[in-house]
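dumping this here before i forget
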Amino acid sequence: MSFVYKKRLTLFDYANYSLLTLISVVCIFPIFYLVMVSLTSKDVYVPFQFHIWPQKMSLDAYTYILSTKSFLTALKNTVFVTVVGTLLNLLFTFTMAYGLTEKNMPYRGLIMGIVVLTLVFNPGIIPNYLLVKNLGLLNSFWALIWPALTNAWSLIVVKSFLDSIPSELRESAKIDGCTDIGVFMRIILPLSMPAIAAFTLFFAIAHWNTYFNAILYLTDTNKWTLQVLVKTMVLDASSNMTGNMAASTDDQVLPQETVRLASVVLAMLPILIVYPFLQRHFAKGVMLGSVKG
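structure:
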């Protein structure tokens, strides 16, 4: 006979669950309300009135935004910066971290010291701007990618992760005739999938949400990223993009508020879609190396 142990909930458990539920509602409700307003039909939309569920839904705002050249151009720019930037971030971070795990690497301690030094001293905005300007990267997508190929925190975390991989695996592969690149490609990378998945999301979110650097380095509106355009649509009422919001395919006026909030939803939707697919790798990455026999 098998017995199923059922834990009795205490007063603390009820209070804890209630608090977590309240926090979840506070975090989720603004996003839910934002989506509902963006789906509200122009026939029933009334400004400055609060409705949790619209009386009539419509996709007119999304249809209009996805038909505008400005939004599609910004979306294309952001996708390019995110995809290329994330791939280069992963390449440079993992290759450099792998090199720093090799105890026979020349000047390994000096390089690691320089990496740690950047955690303490930040050059600031002006030196970074002058660097990008002198490299000829102003008004270029590479101004958002090259200066941020990697960072000290990512290097240290990835190096610690790679240090947890048994060195015997590398030695046995080299005895079988595998080169350093072969060890990295065939041994290190397959065993580093949890870390790769986690940092893929970290880097992708950072590039997707690029705003300040885009404002600083990009002056051509055709090279704006999505976050800059959304900010312009939401806050700058005098912008051309916002001024042209009162239009639709059937020559009826669309509320500016529904169009603005629809643009916000479209800006954050890709990350919300990608995140669940990488969640299982996060759990594995957290547990990896936590128990040692």
